[in-house]
């Protein structure tokens, strides 16, 4: 058999494929071109291996594909093409990814599944055979997302899932290379964190003081703990003698479910010291919670959580966020999310002259560089204050020199 040949899918009266025996092949437009390659002997079974691939529109295309396959066979990089569509593969990959965990948060996996099922699998990219996916397919997918009005951040998150799946396919030798590299990703404009002034924080906490859960917001503002860390806090994690809380649990929203897990990083598992105001708020809240338990009697559920509903059940994350926004609107303050209180705490610490390393440790960042990147625009005034304080430690030789320096500074 020639290594490049033409064949068709016509069948005889017995239903068998005619292949290259079809008389209609006399018509040069009938059928399609294919190639055949001998691929040596299987080292395990001892049987001869063959590489066959068809569906080419011309003899030249088949010859080119044959030559490319021959080079890959010689290099040991050849991967047999598969009929599995990329949309089917990424769904299978996601199921495996979820079973193995791979260190992803439950809420992240929920987003992954939404992106795969609603955006990736139903798209034209999803209908391309896995082994035929190329960079231009992925770039076309990115362009379509942008044309549909999806934001740059969302597009990058969706494409990150595509990149992860194709990277896994390449690692498993399902494809001979990862086509999701060197992509044309949209730029994301970095927004500076907008925080309230200290007086505005005071206004918010004054309004929150009228709510039974005011201690929740006191701790959020003055400890910088994440929402999940606050809602996952148990009384066994609170040491009122040392005036500190230990972060051991994270209570987060994953779709419609509530999931609890230990902090992902060693830095996240930390002990946070409490100030007098936060300690007092926790003591008052503990007494109020005990009164609620007495009022509810047998209907009360002792769950051990610090922040609960009136019946003792732990708070749902979405409830805490909605309550924060309700109190913010009531106080007439600029828009901020519940998570914004974490940045507010960082802002207050920096403004108070706290060392960035201590800020990073209290927030539970894995490195000081992360804290610096997030809070870089907040450090400006504190940096100037530090410069002035440092210079003030060194006495000037004379009043004249001080005057000269002052005049030069004023210019």
UniProtKB/TrEMBL annotation:
Per the database record, which ranges form the Core-binding (CB) domain?
Answer: 84-170
Q: Which residues form the Tyr recombinase domain?
A: 191-388
The alphabetized UniProt keywords are: DNA recombination, DNA-binding
Tell me which stretches of the chain form a coiled coil: none
Q: Give the InterPro entries listed for this entry.
A: AP2-like_int_N, CB, DNA_brk_join_enz, Integrase-like_cat_sf, Integrase_catalytic, Integrase_recombinase_N, Tyrosine_recombinase_XerCD
Note the CDD domains from the entry.
INT_ICEBs1_C_like
**Family annotation (PROSITE patterns):** CB, TYR_RECOMBINASE
A Pfam family of the record is Arm-DNA-bind_4
Q: Record's superkingdom?
A: Bacteria
SUPFAM superfamilies noted in UniProt: DNA breaking-rejoining enzymes (SSF56349)
Q: Which family does it belong to?
A: Belongs to the 'phage' integrase family.
Q: What is this protein called?
A: Site-specific integrase
Species whose genome carries this gene? Agromyces humatus
- Classification lineage: Bacteria, Bacillati, Actinomycetota, Actinomycetes, Micrococcales
